[in-house]
């Protein structure tokens, strides 16, 4: 139970920790926007947890996958919009809140289901603290390493790569409900970095790493990354003069 | 033009979604998958219906199949897998990974399963 809780916490907390790190590094986020993001994430998470059972049964059992796809698309499109100048906080909230809520809702479901047994609470608590601690440590390390480049192009490109990676999860969701067919993997790098390993989790959260990607996943990943990088480059080179006016951080 | 294209895409998707697929039923009871080994033919898309007979939820998880689906207690869920190449694709219950384990075994053409599912 302890190890399993750590793994589940790591799976859900790591993307959130990385997202918040990238966001705080790439943008000057006001305190008010942080509170708005927390509130939006809380409400969305509560709605996801409370309605999950019902939504899962909709559309012949594909309801939750469609909802996930919708939220990921909203997050990605908002991330593209956030590359406009001046950066508007509601775009950042629309980018971050769906990602945070999907992950928190997954872990909350586990907590609700297994936290009701009093004998399991110590293991779940310790596992959650450990998983959270590891995720925070990685996020802090990222902030320390990237802090010198916080106003540079590289960070915007990394932020958009991260968001493209999150959005590329749309393909497995659509394959799961049978909308897109599975294809043979283009390569197999599981001997190098397995999806189940710690590095696999980290690389998946950072850049959408899959050890055996099919053509649909790879093609969509490339498209999402190219479009995202184009928006990042455009915002830096075409809209950069406004930074001198104090619009960009 | 855009409308025609959109209608065509929706038609393709709906035909694909509604098309009848071979179905395999897996039950979760006492945090175990029954059957633990699922035999399916190669190069066919399969509808996997997972029935959770336990009171607690379980998460069907597979890195090899790239699938992740929560099935609530006393509930069922569908996921699609394949078309797959012959081989073994392990899966597990994310909430009980030490007990809930199984494999999708994809049979090559002409190969037969040891017993029926």
SSE arrangement:
The complex is a heterodimer of chains A (249) and B (117).
Chain A: H1 2-26, H2 31-61, H3 63-81, H4 89-114, H5 121-146, H6 153-167, H7 170-176, H8 198-207, H9 215-237
Chain B: H1 2-18, E1 23-29, E2 32-34, E3 37-41, E4 46-52, E5 58-62, E6 67-71, E7 75-81, E8 87-93, E9 101-107
Parallel strand pairs in B: 1-4, 3-9
Antiparallel strand pairs in B: 1-2, 4-7, 5-6, 5-8, 8-9
Task: Write up this protein.
The complex is a heterodimer of chains A (249) and B (117). Chain A has one domain. Helix content of chain A is 73%, strand content 0%. Chain A is built from 9 helices and no strands. The relative contact order of chain A is 0.16. Chain B has 117 residues and is mainly β. In chain B, 15% of the residues lie in helices and 45% in strands. Chain B is built from 1 helix and 9 strands; from the N terminus they run αβββββββββ. In chain B, strands 3-9-8-5-6 form a 5-stranded mixed sheet, with no helix packed on it. Chain B has a 4-stranded mixed sheet with strand order 2-1-4-7, with no helix packed on it. In chain B, a hairpin with a 2-residue loop joins strand 1 and strand 2. Chain B is globular and about 40 Å long. The interface between A and B is medium-sized, with 30 and 31 residues.
């Amino acid at each position: 139970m302890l190890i399993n809780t750590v793994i589940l916490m790591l799976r859900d907390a790591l993307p959130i920790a990385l997202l918040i790190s990238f966001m705080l590094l790439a943008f000057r986020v006001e305190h008010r926007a942080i509170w708005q993001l927390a509130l939006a994430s809380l409400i969305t998470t509560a709605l996801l947890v409370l309605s999950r059972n019902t939504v899962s049964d909709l559309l012949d059992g594909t309801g939750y996958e469609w909802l996930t796809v919708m939220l990921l698309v909203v997050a990605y499109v908002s991330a593209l919009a956030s590359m406009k100048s001046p950066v508007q906080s509601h775009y950042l909230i629309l980018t971050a809140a769906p990602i945070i809520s999907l992950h928190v809702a997954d872990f909350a479901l586990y907590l609700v289901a297994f936290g009701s047994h009093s004998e399991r609470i110590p293991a779940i608590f310790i596992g959650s603290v450990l998983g959270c601690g590891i995720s925070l440590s990685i996020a802090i390390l990222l902030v320390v390493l990237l802090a010198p480049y916080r106003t540079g192009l590289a960070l915007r490109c990394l932020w958009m790569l991260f968001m493209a990676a999150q959005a590329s999860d749309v393909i497995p969701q659509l394959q799961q409900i049978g909308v897109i067919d599975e294809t043979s993997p283009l390569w197999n790098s599981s001997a190098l970095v397995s999806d189940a390993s710690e590095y696999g989790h980290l690389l998946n959260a950072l850049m959408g790493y899959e050890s055996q990607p099919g053509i649909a996943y790879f093609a969509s990943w490339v498209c999402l990354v190219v479009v995202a990088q184009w928006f990042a480059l455009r915002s830096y080179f075409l809209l950069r003069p406004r930074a001198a006016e104090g619009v960009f951080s | 033009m855009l409308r025609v294209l959109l209608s065509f895409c929706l038609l393709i998707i709906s035909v694909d979604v509604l098309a009848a697929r071979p179905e395999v039923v897996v039950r979760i009871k006492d945090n175990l998958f029954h059957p633990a080994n699922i035999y399916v033919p190669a190069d066919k898309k399969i509808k996997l219906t997972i029935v959770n007979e336990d009171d607690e939820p379980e998460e069907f998880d597979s890195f090899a199949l790239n699938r992740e689906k929560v099935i609530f207690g006393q509930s069922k869920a569908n996921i699609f897998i394949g078309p797959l190449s012959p081989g073994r694709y392990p899966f597990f219950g994310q909430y009980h990974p030490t007990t809930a384990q199984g494999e999708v075994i994809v049979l090559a053409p002409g190969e037969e399963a040891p017993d029926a599912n």
